Amino acid sequence: MGGPATYLPKLAEYLVKQGHVVTVLSLSDDKRKSLKSDQWETQLIFRKTPLPIRILLTSIRIAMLARKSDFILANGLHQEVAISKFFVKRPALAKIVGDPVWERYRNSSGKGDVSIEDFNSTKQTFLIRCQREFLRWSLNRFDLVSAPGTGLIELVGKWQVTTPTLLIENGTRCTSGMPAKAIYDSISVSRLVPWKNLESFVRSASQGDFKIAICGDGPEKDNLMKLSQSLGAEVEFLGELTSVGVRNALQSSKTFVNLSSYEGLSFSLIEAMMESKVCIVSDIKGNTDVIEHGFNGIVVPLGSTKKLIEAIEQCLDNPEYAAQLGKNARKIAQMNYCEEKQFNKMMVSLLGLA
């Protein structure tokens, strides 16, 4: 149930290969009711349906599908799955990849500088408290909650969710890590939203005279392009790419940067590690759970453009050092973050509920 678009198809393909029958239900901007696939059925709910009606229709649809299923994996639509359990009792696992209440607040309020920690530690409006309570109630209807990072596990506990939690890290395809000619000094791969702090990345390109690339799309794209032009920074905006395109772009850069103020566990970070890139990351828990400064990457203070420039320059001036960090990063990625290993953890967890 639910998105994002990258994770579910890969997991569904893995489950089908293991002999399981999979049905996917997702919100869509398309008015079609289903999508054809040789491997699994995909049913769609029109996203622009008025919210109360959409929640009810989605919950009923989930209940109907659950009657023919052994278990439910909710990679989103957590409230709808919880409501559906009033009609059909089926084991259910909720995968949490972030704080949807905080994300809605940032997107709707225009207060892009509010950190997830501040949001969760300060008193909020009645409407936001209602959203949090609805999410807490929903997650407590599940049999198991999984998250890709320890920081998210801790956050779920702060929401007073009493359902057992399980750490299942994100995974990526174990590639050969083939080297390619470097086109860029550094690259960032992410959705272009305020908490990714890509303005600092653009400023580093201008002040450090780097050639950088930004891969992804989102509401901050126009602002970033205007900033780049005003500073005369050499920035190439690659837009959204396929998984193969992302790997090719990563291979074409000397370093990878993740400056986010919040991460559960970044897919693009472990993809960069798998490609033997030296990873320069902000000092937040989701990043430092993976990157050890000076061993398999470089950690810089959140919001410090100066330290970011110094880190990139250090890698460009000392390619042997950068190569060793990249080699260590790839070794860690191969040991801990191959997607097949993580998919198997999810499958075993689901089967344990059935």
Structure description:
The protein is about 45% helix and about 15% strand. The protein contains 15 helices and 13 strands. The two termini are about 15 Å apart. Helix 8 packs across helix 13. The strands form 4 sheets. The protein has a 4-stranded parallel sheet, with helices on both faces. By secondary structure, the protein is an alpha/beta fold. The chain folds into 2 domains: about 180 residues, Glycogen Phosphorylase B (Rossmann fold, 3-Layer(aba) Sandwich), CATH 3.40.50; about 150 residues, Rossmann fold. The relative contact order is 0.11. Strand 4, helix 3 and strand 5 form a beta-alpha-beta unit.
Low-confidence stretches: none
The count of DSSP E runs of length 2 or more, i.e. the number of strands, is 13
Q: How widely separated are the two ends?
A: 17 Å
Approximately how much beta-strand content do the residues carry?
A: 15-25%
CATH class of the largest domain: Alpha Beta
Number of helices: 15
Major sheet characteristics: 4 strands, parallel
Please compute the radius of gyration using only Cα atoms. Answer: 21 Å
Structural class: alpha/beta
**Biggest sheet: strands side by side, in what order?**
4-5-6-7
Known CATH architecture of the largest domain: 3-Layer(aba) Sandwich
Query: Which term fits the overall shape?
Result: globular
Give me the CATH fold name of the largest domain: Rossmann fold
What's the pLDDT, averaged over the residues? 91
Query: Residue share in helices?
Result: 40-55%
